Amino acid sequence: xxxxxxxxxxxxxxxxxxxxxxxxxxxxxxxxxxxxxxxxxxxxxxxxxxxxxxxxxxxxxxxxxxxxxxxxxxxxxxxxxxxxxxxxxxxxxxxxxxxxxxxxxxxxxxxxxxxxxxxxxxxxxxxxxxxxxxxxxxxxxxxxxxxxxxxxxxxxxxxxxxxxxxxxxxxxxxxxxxxxxx
Length: 182
What we know:
Blueprint: H1 2-26, H2 35-54, H3 64-84, H4 94-119, H5 128-147, H6 158-181
Helix pairs in contact: 1-3, 1-4, 1-6, 2-3, 2-5, 3-4, 3-6, 4-6, 5-6
């Protein structure tokens, strides 16, 4: 499981670097996005990944890796929005945004480590396409919870679903990076 922790950190470092660069380019304009908008943005990325996995023809020369990275970063933005609330204007510095990013990743990685322990690294035997489908399922759950105004009767809430999407996307990227490195 030490290998998983290091691989997780390596993937997140790439995502964090992209987040930092985009924050320098765009500031924290994402702070105005409501949760359903972030959910839809993640949904678009997951749908594109599924399409890439199913279709042999591509018309845009970008593969699955940047899309999974986008799922991670948009999910972290959603977790920050859950914590801080939506703003009418970009209202945080690059440093504050990165600090909140790191806090959410720390919480999400701890969840992964706990589940990974209990599930015995079962994700290593899963296909990337299955991880994509699980992300899409989580998105549909989040949309339903959003339609229910955040209320659930017996299910985990929106936060847990975003965290699971991050972890599934990291697992998919670990699989893809291993294949890429061969």
